[in-house]
Amino acid sequence: MDSSTVSNSNPFNPGPYTAETYTRRADHTPRTAQPETETYILTLNTDEAHHKAVTALRDKYFPPALNKLSAHVALFRALPGSELPGIETAIQDVVRQSHPFPISTGKPFLLAHGVGLEVHASLAQDIFRTLKEQWNDFLSQQDQSFRAHYTVQNKVEDKEIARKTLEEIQGSFAGSTGTVTGLSLYLYVRGYWNLKQFYPFAEGREKGLEAPVAATNNSDWPALPGSRPDS
């Protein structure tokens, strides 16, 4: 796929994308009165070293022809564009009251078509619950719950491959710890994720960790590390 179609980055998390032909299931669609022309994804934003460690694991085991993304933890995957002003206000309120907090990987586990990696980040659950209380009326069925994890391998039909991956990770991956520095909001466009805004936590703003609003093409930005979330 032409790299010019890859979404933009901020200095912490380059924006992710998925296959152009990807279509969302009904339970991944926000519950609004009208069809949504735009939907948004909200993710945790982590430090570079942690991101690189988990993404390296994903790059090792995800089917190469299908691996267009890097590791991420998504809080919400289908926020409706019709509610965007209120969504942005709620996110701003949360990050003003939050500070960077620890994140670490846990045990690997089997997915339907691959392997996931548990994530320990207790304050992420608090953020999820706070936002869910405000957004519950329009959240998709998928976004009604949150289990923090990284997708290390997916889209594998052979269950034996997934089992071998699980065993290898159990025996060789020492784990990774890091810091969640803020939240990132992405616009979902026909399977692609384009960065809308990075929201640093309060302490991050004090340290000057503001990220610019993304343009529409990665070539407009320097090659900086970060997260390309998966689907």
Question: Can you give a write-up of this model?
Answer:
The protein has 5 helices and 7 strands, in the order βαβαββαβαββα. The protein has 231 residues and is α+β, with helices and mostly antiparallel strands. Strands 1, 2, 3, 4, 5, 6 and 7 form a 7-stranded antiparallel sheet that branches. β6 and β7 form a beta hairpin. It is globular and about 45 Å long. The model is unreliable at 1-21 and 208-231 (pLDDT under 50).
Keywords:
alpha+beta, single chain, seven-stranded antiparallel sheet, globular, disordered C terminus, disordered N terminus, 231 residues
Secondary structure layout:
Layout: E1 39-46, H1 48-61, E2 74-80, H2 84-96, E3 101-111, E4 114-120, H3 122-135, E5 149-153, H4 159-172, E6 177-189, E7 192-200, H5 202-206
Antiparallel strand pairs: 1-2, 1-6, 3-4, 3-6, 4-5, 6-7
Helix pairs in contact: 2-3
Question: What is the percentage of strand-forming residues?
Answer: 25-35%
Give the rounded overall mean pLDDT.
78
Q: Which range best describes the helical content: under 10%, 10-25%, 25-40%, 40-55%, 55-70% or over 70%?
A: 25-40%
How many H/I helices? 5
Number of strands: 7
- Structural class designation: alpha+beta
The largest sheet, given as strand count, sense and whether it forms a barrel, is: 7 strands, antiparallel
Helix-strand pattern = EHEHEEHEHEEH
Q: What does the radius of gyration come to?
A: 17 Å
